[in-house]
């Protein structure tokens, strides 16, 4: 990705997502320690690190699937609401794609994608259907629109889950290890869709073990360990010259295979 595309994100606009002094405990375990992080509009931020480093918790905190103990999280200038209608509104602005696809088994693929816009946004069914079909085409599964989730491969189901999140027309998309439950041959079909979204300028926070994706699509890589952000840099710098011994150790283990 060339430098021109990187520099467009900092055009004097406030960040789309801002975490300030965020802390989170699970019992005695301190899983997020004083996290400070800003994500610019149109930026693709990839979060990597060893298991148990707090990556998924960080991702889930951004749309309040995990509550935080202290600090603040803002999306588009608004602090995360505690609960109720304001939280539902905010969640509509923050798309989320998980490891598991969480599709409704008894609804068709198209119904899965159109449910949110109709129920949450009050979109007319015909308009939602047109939007849904265009998004299924965008992720490459338009021919599966009338099938049930069980009839699709894991890679297809995950692409439907991405289309479902996009149907809410979110301002930012969160991906929590979206390929880790997939068979190896299906991983690239999902990553290709994500690379396409990145090229289209979608703001994305991606927790992943896929270093090829991080190198290809990220504007910035954040490396976490033990609940802290240890290092952040552009992909080229991070992968070729990591500064911290923790990151060097992590990369030496995973890039040798």
Characterization of this structure:
This protein is an alpha/beta fold and 257 residues long. The protein has a single domain, classed as Rossmann fold. The chain is built from ten helices and ten strands. It has helices spanning 3-7, 55-61, 84-93, 109-119, 125-138, 154-166, 184-199, 211-217, 235-240, 245-254; strands at residues 17-26, 29-39, 44-48, 70-75, 78-79, 94-97, 172-176, 203-207, 220-225, 228-233. The strands form two sheets. A six-stranded mixed β-sheet has the order 6-7-8-3-9-10, sandwiched between helices. A four-stranded antiparallel β-sheet has the order 2-1-4-5, with helices on one face. A hairpin with a 2-residue loop joins strand 4 and strand 5. The chain is globular.
């Amino acid at each position: 990705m060339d430098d021109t595309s990187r520099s467009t994100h900092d055009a004097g606009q406030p960040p789309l997502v801002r975490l300030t002094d965020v802390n989170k405990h699970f019992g005695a375990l301190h899983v997020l320690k004083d996290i400070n992080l800003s994500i610019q509009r149109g930026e693709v931020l990839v979060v990597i690190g060893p298991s148990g480093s707090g990556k998924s918790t960080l991702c889930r905190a951004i749309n309040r699937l995990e509550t935080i103990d202290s600090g603040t999280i803002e999306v588009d200038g608004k602090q995360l609401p505690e609960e109720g209608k304001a939280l539902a509104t905010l969640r509509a602005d923050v798309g989320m794609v998980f490891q598991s696809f969480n599709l409704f088994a008894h609804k068709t693929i198209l119904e899965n994608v159109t449910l949110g816009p109709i129920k949450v946004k009050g979109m007319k069914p015909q308009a939602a259907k047109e939007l849904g079909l265009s998004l299924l085409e965008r992720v490459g599964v338009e021919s599966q629109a009338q099938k049930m989730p069980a009839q699709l491969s894991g890679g297809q189901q995950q692409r439907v889950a991405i289309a479902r999140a996009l149907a809410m027309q979110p301002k930012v998309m969160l991906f929590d290890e979206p390929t880790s439950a997939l068979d190896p041959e299906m991983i690239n079909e999902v990553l290709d869709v994500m690379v396409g979204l990145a090229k289209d300028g979608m703001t994305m926070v991606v927790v992943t073990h896929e270093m090829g994706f991080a190198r290809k699509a990220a504007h910035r890589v954040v490396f976490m360990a033990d609940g802290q952000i240890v290092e952040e840099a552009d992909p080229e710098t991070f992968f070729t010259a990591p500064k911290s011994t923790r990151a060097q150790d992590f990369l030496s283990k995973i890039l040798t295979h």
